[in-house]
Amino acid sequence: MPSLKDLRNRISSVKATQKITKAMQMVAAAKLRRAQDAAEAARPYSQRMGAVLANIAATVSGDDAPKLMTGTGSDKTHLLIACTSERGLCGGFNSNIARFVRDDVRKLQSEGKEVKILCVGKKGYDILRREFSALIIDRIDLREVKHIGFSNADAIGKRVMSMFEAGEFDVCTLYYSEFRSVISQVPTGLQLIPAAAPEVDEAENVDAASALYEYEPDANAILDDLIPRNISVQIFRALLENVAGEMGAKMSAMDNATRNAGEMIDKLTMSYNRQRQAQITKELIEIISGAEAL
Amino acid sequence: MADAFTFELVSPERLLLSEQVTEVVVPGSDGYFTVMANHAPTMSTLQPGVATVTTAEGKKEEYVIFGGFIDVLPTSCTVLAESAVSVADVNKADLDARIEAAKAEVASAAEGEAKAKANSYLAQLTTLNQQILPA
């Protein structure tokens, strides 16, 4: 049975923890808003990019199409880019992505494919390293980066491009967590290379327009320029969604922690009071029985 | 008065401008060209340069664009810029930093096409530098 003093200490330590988790929750909430704004602001670009790409892809097809769209013709070597967060304390966020990647790696391996992993973010690296340390070719550290800018994504994109040109892989898939809402982040895999033909929303519109398009310098040259940029844009979008998801997950994890701490404090206070009362009663009994004995 | 059309200038980070305009001059990779309403559908790559936008109210706005694409339709025009800044906000330090980055790229690029690309980008940036910051 812990003494009154022990209980008092425990209560004050849990209270201190609760204050910390509460503060972290509020910080995450503020950061989440900022991350959502950033994701929102980046949306027009990727949407337009998708529209332009769909448009131009419709006109260029067959053997002329660049390798980035059609693929190298084989699918022996897969590059998986696993985007996770740099910091922990965000519930199952990172382990969900890691599990998703792990399942896919196993699947690919069982099909006899060669797998390479590129980790973005420390947490995913820490988890995946345990099992696939031989497959991880590198990790990209964004810990020093306060606000993820396009240049960060572009650097990753360029890296992927140069690896593709060097023939180091055939298929490239990007793993990140799609931000559905504050409480729901869904791990997602997105194939970057060969670029899956973008879905066309207004199919008729595009068809009508593409027939009349003039290209300067020419369609293939534009496509050569456009696709690498599209890869960077997709990575950028994934990183932004990840940040928003991380903050959302952190917010709900910290909310839970705060609530648990509250419950614990209640329980501890209850047993503290009970024990205090027991002690008072005991003292009273001692006094009374002492008086009676006289 | 020329007809107005919708013009949008977007960079990966945000939407910079979305407005009714009458005239847009952009630095196409084959030279500057002007887009007005009812322009034939065109898609072009852009080189670093200054884009001049004349809004429907007749105001002129200038943006420095560091490469990208333009997508022209008869009723709308979209510039997808790699990076864009309003001319008023351009400062020498930023441009110098970009030029330095481009130089580093030239130095690190492999021989052949990549090197040529990096080199021409650097040349375009230098020209741009002299153009907007004559000092």
UniProtKB/TrEMBL annotation, chain A:
UniProt subcellular location: Cell membrane; Membrane; Thylakoid
What is any one of the record's Gene Ontology cellular component terms?
thylakoid
Q: What is its membrane topology?
A: Peripheral membrane protein
Sorted alphabetically, the Gene Ontology BP terms of this entry are:
proton motive force-driven plasma membrane ATP synthesis
UniProt GO molecular function: ATP binding; proton-transporting ATP synthase activity, rotational mechanism
At the top level, the lineage of the source is Bacteria
InterPro entries documented for this protein? ATP_synth_F1_ATPase_gsu, ATP_synth_F1_gsu, ATP_synth_F1_gsu_CS
Residues in coiled coil: none
Print the keywords alphabetically: ATP synthesis, Cell inner membrane, Cell membrane, CF(1), Hydrogen ion transport, Ion transport, Membrane, Transport
What does the UniProt record say this protein does?
A: Produces ATP from ADP in the presence of a proton gradient across the membrane. The gamma chain is believed to be important in regulating ATPase activity and the flow of protons through the CF(0) complex.
Q: Name the HAMAP family for this protein.
A: ATP_synth_gamma_bact (MF_00815)
Q: So what family is this one in?
A: Belongs to the ATPase gamma chain family.
State whether it acts alone or in a complex, and with which partners, per the record: F-type ATPases have 2 components, CF(1) - the catalytic core - and CF(0) - the membrane proton channel. CF(1) has five subunits: alpha(3), beta(3), gamma(1), delta(1), epsilon(1). CF(0) has three main subunits: a, b and c.
Please give the name of this protein.
ATP synthase gamma chain
Q: Which organism is it from?
A: Ahrensia marina
**Which gene holds the coding sequence for this protein?**
atpG
Automatic annotation (TrEMBL), chain B:
Q: Where are the transmembrane segments?
A: none
Matching entries from SUPFAM superfamilies are given as: Epsilon subunit of F1F0-ATP synthase N-terminal domain (SSF51344)
Which locations, inside or outside the cell, does it occupy? Cell membrane; Endomembrane system
GO annotation, cellular component aspect: endomembrane system; plasma membrane; proton-transporting ATP synthase complex
Predominant localisation class? membrane
Give residue ranges for domain ATP synthase F1 complex delta/epsilon subunit N-terminal.
Answer: 5-84
Q: Does the keyword Calcium apply?
A: no
Q: Which CDD domains does the record associate with it? A: F1-ATPase_delta (cd12152)
PANTHER family given in the database record: ATP SYNTHASE DELTA/EPSILON CHAIN, ATP SYNTHASE EPSILON CHAIN, CHLOROPLASTIC
Which family does this protein fall into? Belongs to the ATPase epsilon chain family.
Q: What does this protein do?
A: Produces ATP from ADP in the presence of a proton gradient across the membrane.
| Annotated protein name in UniProt | ATP synthase epsilon chain
What is the scientific name of the source organism?
Ahrensia marina
